[in-house]
Amino acid sequence: MTDTVLTASRQAWWEITLLDSADRVIGPLRGVTGGTITLSANTRLRASGSLTIQDTGQDVNWLTDRVRVVYRARDRRARSMTWPVGVFLMSAPTAAHTSAGTSRDIDLSSRLAVLDEDCLEASTTLPAGRRVTDAVEALIASTGEDGVSITPSDRTLASAMVWEAGTPVLTVINDLLDSANYFSLHPDGDGVLTAAPYVRPAARPVAWAFTAGEAAIHSADWSRDQDTAAVPNRVVLVGQGNGDTPALVATAENTDPASPFSREARGRWITHTETGVEASTQAVLDGLARRRLIDLSTPTATIQAAHLPLPLAPNDRVTWDTAGHAATATIQEIKADLTATSLCTTKLREVIDL
Questions:
Q1: Which of 31, 155, 182, 197 could form a disulfide linkage to 280, CB 3.0–4.6 angstroms apart?
Q2: What is the Cα–Cα distance from 169 to 187, expressed in whole angstroms?
Q3: Separation CA 178–CA 168 (nearest Å)
Q4: Mean of the pLDDT values across residues 165-182?
């Protein structure tokens, strides 16, 4: 993705809007003096942050109101760019009183917090044959949340799944999504709770090319860490069987001669095994095995760089070509400081094509 508006010099600002518990607009949140937003592919709630607010006397219900964060900018030719970053719940308003007035530090968490704080009241069993996406949508609805986009699927549970009382609803949902080889539930920039089938990194479209040169929007200062210890080149997943049906087994192998971790390069197998994996079909288990192999093979190199804000999200695929190092990567974390001139700090995980 190359966009002359995004690569041009820009004047930017962050728009913070106060919403009620149903995400209806109340108006601008006044008195915001700073804050941060973090979007992550690996944390449980996927998005978090903080705000510092100078008290202006605005009526805010810290227990139920929410905020929407939007990035806005324009370039020298008055071309504008706008994209939503997230919808957040507010909590822990710590007040500091000085002669200059009262300020509050507010913690932000994504809408997934509603699902994470709502737990099963009793032991719950979903029977074999239950359609996974139907069960996920019903669980989200049970928490009172709407604004949902779940890609429908005909995949059903191969065997009954059981959760104990007290299990967070978010855990149940992600267990179900994993059984169908979906991405975990995550909020998009508009706060919509989203889930879709997993797509291996090499098959995802390139969302941005971080390339050195006149159009570069990332800093020349960046770092790369590499950890090659115990990277497997084979993954074996064993499903759940019963007395009448043997357990499904799936194997994924790295046999790419160009990969330094492959069987050909190392001269031996290094195997990662998991048992009791819930998968609706052999094809799903095969996909999970390949996904595990990719995930376990790609923590080997992490790039951290600062850049102007971009409409990117965790798990997006990007390319990197700077200072003689070229790679394909996925976004693991984006951290933004809510000041007009600050750069984002982004962590990229290099990936291989398996």
A1: 155
A2: 16
A3: 16
A4: 96
CA distances from 343 to 36, 223, 309 (A): 11, 16, 6
Which distant-in-sequence residues (6+ apart) come within 8 Å of 294 by Cβ? Answer: 200, 201, 351, 352, 354
Element (H, E) at 30: none
> How high is the mean pLDDT of the chain?
92
pLDDT top residue among 232 and 99? 232
Q: How far apart are CA 165 and CA 120, in angstroms?
A: 5
Q: 121: which 2 tokens?
A: 């009241």
Residue 82 has pLDDT above 70, yes or no: yes
Q: Is the pLDDT assigned to residue 118 strictly greater than 90?
A: yes
DSSP notation for 282-348:
HHHHHHHHHHHHHHHHSTTEEEEEEES--S--TT-EEEEEETTEEEEEEEEEEEEESSTTPPEEEEE
Sequence-distant (6+) residues with CB within 8 A of 79 are 5, 8
Backbone angles phi, psi at 65, to 5 degrees: -70, 160
The packing angle between helices 132-142 and 169-179, to 10°, is: 170
